[in-house]
Design a protein that fits this description.
Blueprint (H helix, E strand, L loop, with lengths): L1 H32 L7 H22 L15 H36 L11 H34 L2
Helix pairs in contact: 1-2, 1-4, 2-4, 3-4
Length: 160
Amino acid sequence: MVKKIADISAIVACIILFILAMLTFFDVIGRRFFNSPITGTIEIVQIGMALVAFLSMPRAFYFNAHVSADFIDGIPIKSFQYFLLFFKFLLMFSMMSLMSYAALLSANSFLKDGRTTLELDLSFYPFFYIISFGLFLSIITIIFWFLNTFSEKKTEWGNL
């Protein structure tokens, strides 16, 4: 079920990215040929890219598909491998938890202040709530990644 939610989150991110690409395309066409750009394109693309980044993170965490340097993973000491796995989990979990908390605080602050974007007068708080939701999904997928990886390593090393 967590994999399905992470997949849905990534699909939503892909749809947003496609819409942003189309918006940019039509903005460039309108600017170049009709001397009439689409108002607020820059604001929408900036906010949309943040949504894409944070909504695609859960799937990357679930499959451990982010960019990393794995040169330490080649050390064949079991206790070191367990330590490294736990350290990765602790680092990812703590960072995502803090980021989710900060995004939620920002969303609440923007809700109270009523701050909006300059050009389109869009409220910031819905976007920050979506970002904090994406970060919360990342936390859940990090937990499931750790449990799955730990059980796989335990099984793998138990058979050696």
